[in-house]
Amino acid sequence: xxxxxxxxxxxxxxxAPSGPLTAADFAAVAAEVDPWIxxxxxxxxxxxxxxxxxxxxxxxxxxxHVGFIRAHVPNIRRLAIASxxxxxxxxxxxxKHFVHAEVRHFGYAECDAAEAxxxxx
Length: 121
Description:
By secondary structure, this protein is α/β, with parallel strands linked by helices. Helices cover 42% and strands 25% of the residues. The protein has helices spanning 23-40, 59-72, 86-95, 111-119, and strands at 2-6, 12-17, 43-49, 76-82, 102-106. A 5-stranded mixed β-sheet has the order 1-2-3-4-5, sandwiched between helices. Helix 1 links the parallel strand 2 and strand 3 (43-49). The termini are far apart. The model has no long low-confidence stretch (mean pLDDT 91).
């Protein structure tokens, strides 16, 4: 399951996975952010707030994740990962090789600081 919230004030999308990710999760997020991107050109940032990476429910979930990333990465200015998970702690080092967005890691409890960085100039 992937909870998501788009701040219409800042253009920051918060993603909070709480269980294995599904293709429907990414379709729901796209349905909310695509109109925003069409109207504003890009998201200010994406915040991934997760204690750990939950994996995917099945291969369709993996493909939905890859498709979402491929379609939306060009429209994201910054990416923040707020997590204490070992895997997600090193994810910014890996991710920066594949995206043009600025990428930063924050501790799980530093969600507010991550949001402020994403919304900043």
